[in-house]
Automatic annotation (TrEMBL), chain A:
Highest taxon of source: Bacteria
Protein name according to UniProt: ABC transporter substrate binding protein
Classification via Pfam families: ABC_sub_bind
Source organism of this protein record: Tissierella creatinophila DSM 6911
SUPFAM superfamilies referenced in this protein's UniProt entry, alphabetically: Periplasmic binding protein-like I
TrEMBL record, chain B:
InterPro entries: ABC_transp_permease (IPR001851)
MF annotations from Gene Ontology: transmembrane transporter activity
Gene Ontology terms: cellular component: plasma membrane
Major subcellular site: membrane
Coiled coil spans: none
Protein name according to UniProt: Ribose ABC transporter permease protein
PANTHER family: ABC TRANSPORTER PERMEASE PROTEIN YPHD-RELATED-RELATED, BRANCHED-CHAIN AMINO ACID TRANSPORT SYSTEM, PERMEASE PROTEIN
Topology class, membrane: Multi-pass membrane protein
Source organism superkingdom: Bacteria
This protein's UniProt keywords: Cell membrane, Membrane, Transmembrane, Transmembrane helix
Localization, UniProt: Cell membrane
Species of provenance: Tissierella creatinophila DSM 6911
Length: 320, 302
């Protein structure tokens, strides 16, 4: 048996040597993404574009070691520690859990951490130290304004959200705080797992909400097609928070472009990687620009006409 | 690339989670009780720790508080099962589900422990003793001490009268009844000890990675079961190796499997598949080893 363990150990050692040593001269970027998810994937794509926009070439100026934790917290920690042990030159965390794990793994190490898709960097304690990046805070004022423009008579907005997702909790708090300014009340239902989402939606429909709003809640967005079946049957429009949700059938969304967010992050990373700036000195950035996306098919189905006031600014979404 | 650092990190993770493996060893292997409380008591330990640390409570004290609350969680499952006559799986599910909300109440969905706050790895007695060695080695030494200390305590406990009763309940509970002891009480004690260990593991994880997340408990029961089965399979042949030692090694092997899968540099989505194949290889190898030994010993006798 001892032999067996030894074999295993040897395989692992060999693997480490083979994958590690060949490219030592080229700076290595370790990207840790919390899980596969359309907006997070867009962040990563954008990030690489951002590096290239800054004049860096993959394979010459940097190599990437990409890992995703599949939404598993203990694997998330191990990925971060692997990057730290390998002494990568730069770490990139996509989504809050990845960013905080990476930053924790660099304690007593001098590796800069760049994050993206983190809603609240202050809450996540990523606002000081050898760490910087971009926040994907939702443009909630713009979202409320959009719903008001599209549905002048609407009174209540229904939102389902997961009680364990920090991004959703801070967004719900802001929604509740700002809704009265636009003459809305918020009906929010918190759920703990994905299987409860449709029940929450049924409950909201029975409460006669006039519109639904989707945050970037992973559980809720994950079953969006099922939600759309229910709300379309009840003729209640759903508004989203990003382009991918509009592609799936939401009537409209006010949201940031995750590719753009990624590009901005990539440009920051390029500065740090080439030594033009230090992560310690760069403050984190919140993207102020948002876009309004609309889905013409969904609008027609629900007999909503785009008001002139927002028509010019919108980006109609191509459906494939 | 630093292979030593990689190994140190992997073993450290294995040692921290070994406390959870001991717990599942007690409930699943000794008591024959599939205890799902673990998925709730593990983040419970972390939640309490994160809140206490951010309120500047002594990190060593938080270990004890987490331990106590974990014990309480185990007590609740035991009480539901034994006194209210609810089946083992359901009793665990009830406590685990309740704890999810309780954890959210205690620490919210996420809580980060800032670097300026001291943990057991950066303060107190451990810091006095090992403060001058680099953090990742310090973490290894400290977790090794904790994991071995609890292993020894458990080994000693299993030899006491109470510990023997615990083992009897799982093997043949008639014996316990014949000894005029209440097997229900013994089960409750076992669950209490186990979940205290689980919460302690959660507490150390929180101190080590400086964060609590309400979803960190997901899959911990499965982890515990896998390490117990792997550990006991690997050491099946060696009767003298204690169960606690076997699951300690199981825990490290589990974390090493993930590390190997990570290091192989395969597409990220294949990670779990590679890990599960590694498990299978180890289990089949363990069984194969056992069979060949049997054949050898038969031949020897003939």
């Amino acid at each position: 048996m001892k032999k067996g363990l030894l074999t295993l150990l040897t395989i692992s050692l060999l693997a480490t040597i083979l994958t590690g040593c060949s490219k030592d001269s080229i700076p290595k970027i370790g990207i840790s993404q919390y899980g596969e998810h359309a907006s997070l994937d867009n962040c990563r794509e954008g990030f690489i574009q951002g590096l290239e926009k800054s004049g860096l070439v993959e394979g010459e100026d940097f190599v990437i070691d990409y890992q995703n934790a599949g939404f598993d917290d203990s694997i998330n920690t191990q990925i971060a520690q692997t990057f730290a042990s390998n002494n990568v030159d730069l770490m990139v965390g996509i989504a809050t859990p990845s960013a905080t794990a990476l930053y924790a793994a660099t304690e007593e190490k001098d590796i800069p951490v760049i994050f993206t898709a983190v809603t609240d960097p202050v809450e996540a304690k990523l606002d000081k130290g050898n760490v910087t990046g971009t926040s994907d805070k939702l443009p909630i004022d713009a979202q409320l304004e959009l719903i008001r423009a599209m549905q002048p008579d609407a009174k209540t907005i229904g939102i389902a959200y997961t009680t364990s997702e920090p991004n959703s909790i801070s967004a719900i708090a802001e929604y509740k705080e700002k809704a009265p300014n636009y003459g809305f009340t918020i009906e929010a239902i918190g759920i703990t797992q994905q299987s409860e989402v449709t029940q929450a939606v049924d409950t909201l429909i029975s409460k006669d909400v006039d519109a639904f709003s989707n945050l970037t809640d992973n559980n809720v967005v994950g079953v969006l097609p099922a939600i759309l079946d229910k709300t379309n049957a009840a003729s209640i429009p759903i508004y989203g928070s990003e382009i991918e949700q509009v592609k799936l059938g939401c009537v409209a969304a006010a949201g940031i472009d995750y590719i753009e967010l990624g590009i901005r992050t990539g440009e920051m990373a390029a500065k740090v990687l080439t030594g033009k700036a230090k992560a310690t000195d760069l403050p984190y950035e919140t993207i102020k620009d948002y876009h309004i996306y609309t889905n013409t098919n969904a609008l027609e189905k629900l007999n909503i006409t785009l008001p002139e006031s927002i028509k010019e600014d919108t980006v109609p979404v191509e459906l494939d | 690339m630093n292979i030593i650092d990689l190994a140190v990190n992997t073993i450290t993770q294995g040692l921290i989670y070994a406390l959870l493996s001991y717990a599942v060893y007690i409930t699943y292997k000794i008591l024959d009780f599939p205890d799902l409380t673990v998925d709730g008591s593990f983040p419970l330990g972390a939640a309490i720790t994160a809140v206490l640390l951010t309120n500047n409570v002594n990190p060593y004290l938080t270990l004890l508080v987490a331990l106590a609350f974990g014990a309480l969680a185990g007590l609740v499952t035991g009480f539901i099962h034994v006194r209210l006559n609810i089946r083992a799986l359901l009793a665990g599910i009830i406590t685990m589900t309740g704890l999810f909300s309780i954890n959210l109440q205690i620490a919210g969905s996420n809580l980060i422990v800032d670097r300026t706050i001291d943990t057991i790895f950066t303060s107190g007695i451990f810091n006095v003793l090992f403060g001058n060695i680099p953090l990742i080695y310090r973490k290894l030494v400290i977790t090794l001490i904790i994991a071995l200390a609890f292993k020894l305590i458990l080994d000693l406990y299993f030899k006491t009268k109470n510990g023997l009763l615990l083992r009897a309940v799982g093997d043949n509970d008639l014996v316990v009844t014949m000894l005029a002891k209440d097997k229900g009480t013994v089960k409750i004690i076992g669950l209490t000890i186990a979940n205290a260990l689980v919460a302690l593991s959660g507490s150390i994880v929180c101190q080590e990675q400086r964060s609590f997340s309400s979803t960190m408990g997901t899959g911990q029961v499965v982890f515990g079961l896998a390490t117990v089965i792997m550990g006991t399979t690997i050491f099946k042949r060696f009767g003298f190796v204690k169960g606690t030692t076997a699951v300690l090694v199981g825990s490290i092997v589990y974390k090493a499997c993930i590390q190997v899968a990570l290091t192989l540099g395969l597409p990220a989505n294949l990670l779990k598949l590679v890990t599960s194949i590694l498990f299978l290889v180890i289990l089949v190898y363990g069984n194969y080893q056992q069979k060949t030994t049997k054949v050898v010993s038969k031949n020897a006798r003939a």
